[in-house]
Design a protein that fits this description.
alpha/beta, five-stranded mixed β-sheet
């Protein structure tokens, strides 16, 4: 198995996003003036395994619009096709494409793909609710047109500490698991590498490893208790399985992946 980090630009996030206030001010503070954190990467992942290529998330595109709590810097050559080419791969090689969740910096690059893109059914249903569609319009963050989103269920039973899962490879070394919180249907993908480590491609379950260890939810999560429960499940899994934790926006994710550093 080989996991390639693909970095589709960077994003600057408001301090109030990463270090959310408590109580009713948590989400409104995102729309108020405030400090900005240094740029962080926008990672997605290409996984080569058993003559197959899996893509976990598809990254951002150069046409992305800034929003009140995120400022993007993405060039055309940083989009998914260029990043795949730099790794010696092509979008036409992808056998399975799966999204951790349907935020723009994780799904917009799917516009470059011709085949189906797998999305947890809870996430896809939420994205089509009236409230979600209104926010997409207000923030100028539409779901990319023409993409063949295909719902799937986490109907494979438990996997480690995770109660719900779905094997994406026949040998169950690439497995989607439920990590709701950042969005209602958020998933992560666990890849069991050749040394038996569980590489947890965490999407935005947290933005960094430090945030996970601190059990600190971001300001976007609709329900804080759900987010914290997912964090505790990840830590419980890591307590029993050597786990390399690689969220999409952690500047240290690529070095932990390269070195096999576990939690």
């Amino acid at each position: 198995m080989k996991i390639h980090p693909l970095t589709t630009g960077v994003v600057r996030l408001k301090h109030s996003f990463l270090f959310a206030r408590e109580g009713w001010r948590r989400q409104p503070s995102l729309f108020l003036p405030g400090d900005w954190c240094p740029p962080v990467p926008i990672h997605c992942w290409a996984v080569e395994h058993e003559d197959r290529l899996f893509l976990v998330d598809t990254g951002e595109t150069a046409g992305v619009n800034d929003i009140p709590f995120a400022r993007f810097e993405v060039t055309k050559d940083q989009e998914l096709p260029g990043q795949l080419a730099a790794a010696g791969l092509s979008s036409s090689d992808a056998d399975t494409v799966v999204l951790t969740h349907m935020h723009g910096d994780h799904m917009d690059g799917a516009a470059h793909l011709a085949g189906p893109v797998l999305v947890h059914d809870d996430e896809l249903s939420f994205t089509r609710t009236l409230g979600a569609r209104v926010m997409q319009r207000l923030l100028r963050q539409p779901v990319p047109a023409g993409v063949k989103f295909r719902a799937f269920k986490l109907d494979g039973g438990p996997f480690g500490a995770f109660e719900r899962s779905r094997a994406l490879s026949e040998d169950r070394r690439v497995v989607a698991v439920a990590t709701p919180g950042h969005t209602p249907g958020h998933i992560s993908v666990i890849c069991v590498d050749d040394e038996g480590r569980h590489v947890l491609l965490a999407g935005d379950a947290t933005d960094t490893l430090d945030q996970l260890l601190a059990l600190r939810p971001d300001a976007v999560s609709p329900k804080v208790d759900v987010t914290i429960a997912s964090m505790k499940t990840i830590l419980a899994h890591a307590a029993k399985h050597p786990t390399v934790y690689v969220p999409s926006h952690d500047p240290q994710s690529t070095s932990r992946l390269a070195e096999g550093t576990t939690i």
